Amino acid sequence: MANSSVRYFIFxxxxxxxxxxxxxxxxxxxxxxxxxxxxxxxAERMEQFGSEFIPYTFHLPVSIAVIKINxxxxxxxxxxxxxxxxxxxxxxxxxxxxxxxYKMPTLVTFNGRTxxxxxxxxxxxxxxxxxxxWFNIYAKSWEQKRGRYNQxxxxxxxxxxxxxxxxxxxxxxxxxxxxxxxxxxMGVAGHMVQSLYNEGKMQEINDYCRCDVLDTYFVFLRTAxxxxxxxxxxxxxxxxxxxxxxxxxxxxxxxxxxxxxxxETWVNPWEETEExxxxxxxxxxxxxxxxxx
Length: 293
What we know:
- Helix content is 41%, strand content 12%.
- It has one domain: 2-Layer Sandwich (Nucleotidyltransferase, domain 5), CATH 3.30.420.10.
- The chain is built from 10 helices and 5 strands.
- The protein is globular.
């Protein structure tokens, strides 16, 4: 790569419910096993909210995939942390230590504002891990890493698309990935992680995490086009480049070939017309137009 410095950390987390904690907090004195506590709480959530999903506050990270991106929006590497042990306390430390070691690159997530980031903050709290660089709460408000609108620190792609929650993005990452020709969900969904974990199928969870973070990367590229950080032509070039790189890596990581097999070629409507989307200047005029008098 022409530029080897890490500018962005795109990451995704898979997590499972902590049955011991649920038993202590939700059902004190009932002496429920961890498995029974999870089952009971999930049933309550389904009855009350129509979903078995247990809040992140009762979760532990069990898989974290990170894509390291340079300032040219190219992939430098994809890593999964603490494989094959996947120990929650080690995962948490490796994540925050890596972010600090690479000089605090912009964290990129999809809906990480309400799940991934608070989960990792609470995990650091749980395991006694200091991250003062992230909790710089005495800095000026606009320089605080955890600032709601500090997108230089954390770029939540869902926040960008929904104008910080002004609208609902029905379909989520799966929708956005499909819009740009990526597979989205490939047989495993978030609600299945707990069962896979109980069955000891950590490889399946890890592969799912890798595919989710790849979807996030490709959505990140289109969002970069939306925000004017790269051109559509550059995005197409990066997609081709990344797909070739994934094919090279598929022998070591077979899930990449599965991912590529389910990708579709995004149909570029501008190739079918004589016109292309114009870049406009600050006055809303085409950059190729004659100056107004």
